[in-house]
Design goal:
five-stranded mixed barrel, Rossmann fold, 2 domains, 29% helix, homodimer, five-stranded mixed β-sheet, 413 residues, alpha+beta
Chain lengths: 413, 413
């Protein structure tokens, strides 16, 4: 991608009305634009990050058998009346021209359950795992935390269907592992804790994945022995850790970046969703649901990975792998930079190439730090004389001089 | 993909309340599911087709410089008041909890124009091409044609920004060519005609891309000399073809699968979107907009490519390249089919493998015809004795016997 052609410019000033660090940096660096409170446009660089995260989630969920669907955002009122959740105040509601009433989906149990019922009839059709990555809307009372709490957002929601609780329990453990892989690949492995939280009708507790950050709205207590965390909302129920009987906890602020939930028959009951068991009996299908918010993940990454100069993207979610900067406009520098750009692209390396002629080196470096691509390569007259380029990691101060002919092998993606 | 694990089953009966051929076949074959009138879920096979079309569009639009963004579906009322389009009856409207009013986006001029205004200030920033592939909603009075006319649908919408009309005119011609490539790759090249249609405030005419099908809701007149078509709505203005002065026209039914529009300053005026020209003067930005409906494209493909047995997907948009069918369950047939499945996948060929044990060959063939993957490979005891498999194109009756060792090179994707 040529930076000279990039639609969006970075800005030095923090945007008005944005208090969260993630929104301030993402807006300034040109990843997102605010349309209204809790409602953002993803700009070209933001779309690249979004796609990386989408790909990670898709790969890990398909590894545990998830089949991808795409459900609508417009939901007819009737489906939500069946579970009594039409009244939920977070649901945006609207009327069509013939009086038809719709809610805007903020979750999809009321849609996936009758859909699964049409296709699952026998124990032979189970277990079954269905997921989507889809735009959701929620009438959020507090939409002040940038991408951490939006009115419009993209979720990965996975639903699992089982013949019995034991099978759900097994799959639930698989999802836990897949989630940890996702957080690890997004750079949040070290900061994200499996957290015991409030359950529902069919399970006393659920699990959240909480990522530690001062921007978090939740408080969790991390067991210092086994690392299980407990959400403050249920902490009073535990004097010792239910996992390892540990007694020491560390209290921290965190943001819920994922949740997994044993639904049991909570939704199969109202939809009368049954299957024929091997012995011929009709039984209710046992369900689980598993969510991750993509925008919130991006917001959490920026809250954690930044410094005064800007964002520091973890490798696998950065919009580009390399920021190539040409600091002078002499014919030789330009030709070398263009040649390197083409060569990197040919090797399937994603490069943002700062080919702009009207910026000083200082301006270019400041913008590169703000945008936060993990590796910076600088080409100048001075280093070209040594047949070299300067290589710098965004998260280090050190600048390395690398011979151009050795560059590709030293990158080692 | 293993067909035994596929979430959705095909059905023999046409669904009630579905009158259009596209919805009947897509529902029966398990590509989509109807949630409400004009509102569909894409099922696993449908998601694969959707992704193929998305990829084709993305590639062709990025070839002509399109930069991808993702704008929201929830639009604040204020933006639409600026152009006076808040009153449009097709717009779904809703109120948030603090009285905030939103419309659901059915197009994005009111969003992209102020966004572009924030980033485009000088002639140096122009031209600029921004697009997205995004979910739109429209309060459609007639939602009876399956995917051809939905209340929720996915559009590719591209917006172009120029210093002057001439530059817009040039880009407009580029988009025309890109659109023809898209239709060709989707299998609709021969049926799709550039069609003169009603313009707006700033251009007397616009262009539609109309795809001939009896399911179409439009009537177009195709010039028999140069192939330019004219929409019935403006046909009375022309006695001869404005392109070649031809006098003979053929009247056909067609569906609008794309449209391109010279907006001029229609939106830059109300948003006061100006740039500084090379001579220092401030001038209004000249705009164009270009849409393609992905769902409608899929619907049109099915309306055109089907027979009594089912869908006949064009090669580049099929959910899979090969439908591999194991017709017996002997150890030898199963082992050979599994080996071939793995080998094809290793060669990056997308395969739906019918590994089901409880279906007769006749049932499997009927389902394969309904699903409509372009190439069918059958493995049975009989042909394995000749170290061969049976190869059949969905659009031909002829069955070829091919030696397994020659199969890969004869596939020739």
């Amino acid at each position: 991608m040529l930076q000279s052609q990039l639609f969006v410019k970075t800005t030095k000033q923090a945007p008005k009305h944005e208090k969260s660090i993630n929104a301030q940096l993402l807006v300034r660096a040109g990843f997102i634009d605010k349309l209204a409170a809790g409602i953002y446009t993803y700009l070209p660089l933001g779309v690249q990050v979004f796609k990386k995260i989408e790909k990670i989630i898709q790969e890990e969920i398909e590894t545990i058998g998830g089949q991808k669907v795409l459900m609508p955002a417009l939901h007819p009122r009737e489906k939500w009346e069946i579970t009594g959740r039409w009244q939920v105040s977070e649901m945006f509601k609207l009327k069509g021209r013939f009086g038809k009433e719709y809610g805007l989906g903020w979750t999809h149990e009321e849609i996936i359950t009758p859909l699964a019922k049409k296709n699952i009839h026998s124990y032979k059709d189970l277990p079954c795992y269905i997921y989507q990555i889809q735009t959701k809307m929620r009438d959020e009372p507090r939409a002040k935390s940038g991408l951490l709490r939006g009115r419009e957002f993209t979720m990965k929601d996975l639903y699992s269907f089982h013949t019995e609780q034991k099978d759900l329990d097994n799959y639930y453990e698989k999802v836990k592992k897949a989630y940890f892989k996702i957080f690890k690949r997004c750079g949040l492995g070290a900061q994200t804790y499996l957290t015991l939280a409030l359950g529902g009708t069919f399970s006393k507790y659920s699990h959240e994945f909480q990522t530690i950050t001062p921007a978090g709205e939740d408080i969790i207590y991390i067991c210092q022995k086994c690392n299980l965390a407990i959400n403050k909302e249920i902490k009073s129920e535990f004097t010792i850790c239910p996992e390892c009987q540990g007694k020491k906890f560390k209290m921290v602020k965190a943001i819920e970046t994922g949740n997994i939930f044993k639904l049991g028959t909570k939704y199969s009951e109202p939809f009368n969703f049954k299957f024929r068991a091997q012995n011929g009996q009709e039984k209710l299908v046992v369900m689980g649901c598993y969510g991750i918010g993509l925008d919130r993940l991006i917001g959490a990454i920026v809250e954690i990975y930044h410094d005064k100069q800007g964002i520091i993207w973890p490798k696998e979610v950065a919009s580009h792998q390399i920021h190539l900067i040409q600091v002078e406009n002499s014919r030789q520098v330009k030709a070398s930079a263009e040649k390197l750009y083409k060569n990197l692209k040919k090797n399937n390396i994603q490069v943002l190439y700062d080919d702009r002629k009207d910026k000083t080196p200082g301006e270019k470096f400041a913008e590169a730090d703000l945008i936060g691509i993990p590796l910076r390569i600088v080409i100048s007259e001075r280093v070209l004389k040594k047949n070299s380029v300067e290589l710098k990691r965004r998260d280090e101060k050190k600048v390395k001089l690398i011979k151009i002919k050795n560059l590709l092998q030293s990158l080692n993606f």
